[in-house]
Amino acid sequence: MKKVIGAAIISLTFIGLMACSNDNSSEMLEGGQPPGDAGNELQSAEALFNIEDYPEVIAVVNGEELEREVYVTALEEEALMLQAQGFDFQGEEAAEYLTMLEQQLLEQFITEKTLNFEAEKAGLDATDEEVKQELETVMAQNQIPSEEDLVQILEQQGASIDELRDDIAMFVKRQKFIEQQLDSTTITDEQIQEEYDNLVAQIEESGEDSEIPPLEEVQGEIRDYLEMEHQEGQYAEILERIREESDITINI
User: Fold this and answer.
1) In sequence order, what DSSP letters do the residues of 11-33 get, joined into one string?
2) How far is CA 134 from the centre of its chain?
């Protein structure tokens, strides 16, 4: 079963830590690249967001609080990443983007907490080996050569390797819960043919002077695409269902 959480590798708490530690990171938030130009100086989080208006508890999800400090820290980490990418913090377009970022980050926190709740309720567990493998993946993706280097990076950010391992364990549990909810599907030859015909029609209508490969050469790629599309649709339905079943209070 392919993993279906692509946007959040471990948790929001450590996404910013890892991304800010990687000078080569070019990962952007969903929704496209922000407007900006290189050399823009970073403003304080207080200047970028209405932090003074945030309550001490941003939201409560199934009895678990999202504290103001955690939410603000995540916003600050996102602002650091935007600065590294040359984001221009001035202007109406930037203000709209930052407002979208606030909402998007809140929704991601809520999604994570609803999945955590369901995984714990299902009694799912993460083995030491599973945590080790995911930790190695995080290090490889962020070009961190050794665990000692990782420990140093985390300490500089006020975190610890044990906290990261706990977060990874929770990620593994979330992943297992999602995989349990997904229905297996078989993509038929008819579906592949239909998708291929649609693609051919789109190319022909666009007027592009492109050579169209025969179905036999691309049917594997089409099958993978259709499987992923089906899986993403199921994932969205799972999130919608568990959100409807969750007790969520948002205070901002």
Assistant:
1) -HHHHHHHHHH-TT-----TT-P
2) 15
Question: Which value, to the nearest 10 degrees, does the dihedral of the CA atoms of residues 81, 156, 146, 22 take?
Answer: 10
CB-count exposure of residue 171 (10 Å: 0-12, 13-18, 19+): buried
Please name which of 192, 188, 186, 190 lies closest in space to residue 214, comparing C-alpha atoms. 192
Q: How does 206-233 read in b/e, with b if 16+ C-beta sit within 10 Å? A: eeeeeeeeebeebbeebbeebeeebbee
Element (H, E) at 155: helix 147-156
Tens of pLDDT along 144-181?
999 999 999 988 878 899 999 999 999 999 999 999 99
**Coil/strand/helix, residue 50:** coil
User: Whole-angstrom Cα distance, residue 193 to residue 219?
Assistant: 8
With CA atoms as reference, report the closest residue to 118 among 203, 32, 243: 243
Residues 46/52, Cβ–Cβ less than 8 Å: yes
The CATH classification number of 12-184+246-250 equals 1.10.4030.10
CA distances from 215 to 186, 192, 221 (A): 18, 9, 10
pTM of the model: 0.74
**E strand spans, the chain:** 57-61, 64-67, 248-250
Residue 57, classed as helix, strand or coil, is strand
